[in-house]
Amino acid sequence: MAQKNTAIVTGASSGIGQATAKELAAKGYHVMLAARREERLVELKKEIEAEGGNADYKVTDVTSVDDMKSLAQETLEKTGRIDVFVNNAGLMPLSFMNKLKIDEWDKMVDVNIKGVLYGIAAVLPIMEQQESGHILNVSSVAGHQVSKGSAVYSGTKYAVRAISDGLRQEIDPSHEIRVTIVSPGAVETELTNTITDEDVLEAFKGTSMEMLKAHDIAKAIAYAVEQPPHVDVNEILIRPRQQP
Ligand code: NDP
C-alpha cells in the first residue's frame, strides 16, 4: 500500500475545511492549510501543533491558477508528496434569479467551479506521477436538488459532481488515485454570511432544525480517505436527520 501522509485542505480557515484539517492532522497527516485569511491559518497551525500534529499554511486564492500551482509545489517541496487534496473552499450567496446579482453569480462560478478545476489541475499531474492520491471535491445536497434561491449555487454544485465523476472515470486504472464527492446538507458554519438577498434571509428565519457540525463532515471525509486503496467511496451524501 502506498504511504499516505500529506493532505492539502482548501478553505481551511473556517467551517468544514478547518474541522477536516484538524481531523486529518489528528490521524497523522501533515496538513497544508490553504485559504485567504492568513491570521486564521496561523491560529489553526498553532492549534494543530499544540495537539502534536504537523501543519503548514499557504495563503491561497483558489480563483488564481498561479496560487493553486504554488500551493501544490510548496507542499511537494515541504513533504515530498501530495496524498490527499480536499477541494473544499466555497461560497453560497443564495439569491433569487430576478435580483440579477451577477457579481455574486460570478464569484460562485469562480470559487465553486473554477477553484475546484484549478485545484485538480494543480495536483493531478503530481498524483499521476506518484501513481496514487485522493481528490475529494465538496459539493452539496444542493448539488442533488434545486430550491428557490439556490439556482446558481446548485448549478455550481451539480457541476462539481459532474466534474468529479468524469475525473474518476478517466483515472488510469493501474494508478491508486481515487476521487470522492462530499455532499453535505445543512452544516453550522459561516457559509450563510455572504447572503445579501433579504428575501432569502427572511426565508431562512424560523428554521429550527438541528444542523450538522463541521466535525461531522470532517469525520465522513476521514472515513473515505482511510479506506484501503481498492475502495473508492464515490460520494458521501450526509444530511441532518431532520433535513427533508
Ligand atoms: P465557511 O464559510 O465556513 O468556509 C468557506 C471557506 O472557503 C473559508 O475557509 C474561506 O476562506 C474559503 N474560501 C472562500 N473563497 C475562497 C477563495 N477565493 N480562495 C480560497 N479560499 C476561499 O463555509 P463551509 O465550511 O460551510 O463551506 C465549505 C464547503 O462546504 C463549501 O464548498 C460549501 O459550499 C460546502 N457546503 C457547505 C454546507 C453548509 O451547510 N455549511 C452544505 C453543503 C456544502 P477565506 O475566506 O479565508 O479565503
Brief account:
Belongs to the short-chain dehydrogenases/reductases (SDR) family. This protein is of the alpha/beta class and 244 residues long.
Task: Please provide a written account of the structure.
This protein is an alpha/beta fold. The chain has a single domain, classed as Rossmann fold, CATH 3.40.50.720. The protein is built from seven helices and seven strands. It has a seven-stranded parallel sheet with strand order 3-2-1-4-5-6-7, with helices on both faces. Helix 1 links the parallel strand 1 and strand 2 (30-35). It is globular and about 50 Å long.
Can you identify the CATH superfamily?
Answer: NAD(P)-binding Rossmann-like Domain
CATH topology: Rossmann fold
Judged by helices, strands and strand pairing, the structural class is alpha/beta
Residues in helix, %: 40-55%
Mean pLDDT: 96
Pfam families: adh_short
Keywords: Oxidoreductase
Protein name: Oxidoreductase
Organism: Planococcus maitriensis
